[in-house]
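sanity check this chain:
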Amino acid sequence: MAKWDTKQSDELWKTILALRNLDETKRFFRDLLTEAEIIEFAKRWQAAKMLDIEVPYSEIVKKTGLSSTTVARISRWLNRGLGGYRLMLHRLHHRPLSSGKK
């Protein structure tokens, strides 16, 4: 079992699943995370979406302010991670689910 995959983290995931709308989600995550953490997570998600449409790393770095190392890590997770990014990209864009780069 991975270090992050614990009973405590399962309780967190279940709590997140119980959120009912955008307002509840914003309120919960703002209490849970710092503003900086929320901004960082939003930038990472933006980078994943940009990588999915094959935007060059340099443009992603420029637009998000993320380091090239972070963008490379997101790319690795997007293409060889647990499939979470791909799942959500598929779900939000109603595209066929792929396991790797197009």
Summary: The domain at 7-93 is CATH 1.10.1270.10 (Trp Operon Repressor; Chain A). The two ends are 30 Å apart (CA to CA).
